[in-house]
Amino acid sequence: MSKLPRENQFLDLSDYGRPIANVIAKSLQNTAFTPIHVTFLFVASGLIAVFCILNEYYWATAFFLVLKSILDAADGELARLKNTPSYTGRYLDSISDMLLNLLILMTIWYSTDGSIAYTILAFLGLQLQGTLYNYYYVILRNQHHGDTTSRVFENETPIALKGERQIHVNILFRIYSLLYGAFDKIIYNMDKKAVEGTRMPNWFMTAVSTFGLGFQLLLIGTMLVMDLKQYIVPFFIGYSIFILIFIAIRKLLN
């Protein structure tokens, strides 16, 4: 089940796990499993990947990073199948993603004896890349009446949806704002008029989807398997230049 109407769907390179995620979600549709249970599973998969990096089990690392991406898609699919959208799940998902990203990069830093300053810079680049992708994707979904639990502007606590408690939404929104607020503001200030744009063609969104977390994790897993772990941090620092390139293209299109 896509977050966009069929006529507005694009090839999302970060969403390669969606077909398997659909199968997982459908198998859990009539069970007691909730989307949050699946979120906990993807956190477990990410932690196992970290353990594998520390022990240099790189094929296993790649497997669990891809599994994490699949389960990351499956929790949202299950929420749509059960018709139980929630801000609790949306914020828990994003918070878990960021903390796992930081842990994965810090583990790579530890195992390569690299520069902590460069690792932090790579983490910031990784997050800004993902923020730009999510910014454009959420705008597109709002324009075409797609999934709306993610908002273009996360500047106030939302009202809890049916089946969730407001106190949980309040707490998770505060944590989300603390972790993501600065990244959201940076990207918004770099491209304020994106919300007024009328053109985000499929080819453009496909290119920007290389900033999606699923694709980022696939790259990390591939580079580990190819014994290129020392280049992971420099790569994500350098790839951040495409933030400026994609914003420039978006502005030219409109």
From TrEMBL:
Any Pfam family: CDP-OH_P_transf
Keyword Acetylation attributed: no
InterPro entries reported for this sequence: CDP-OH_P_trans, CDP-OH_PTrfase_TM_dom, CDP_ALCOHOL_P_TRANSF_CS
Transmembrane residue ranges: 32-51, 116-136, 203-225, 231-249
PROSITE patterns, sorted: CDP_ALCOHOL_P_TRANSF
Keyword rRNA processing: no
Swiss-Prot/TrEMBL keywords: Membrane, Transferase, Transmembrane, Transmembrane helix
Superkingdom of source: Bacteria
Family to which the UniProt record says this protein belongs: Belongs to the CDP-alcohol phosphatidyltransferase class-I family.
Protein name per its UniProtKB record: CDP-alcohol phosphatidyltransferase family protein
Source organism: Croceitalea vernalis
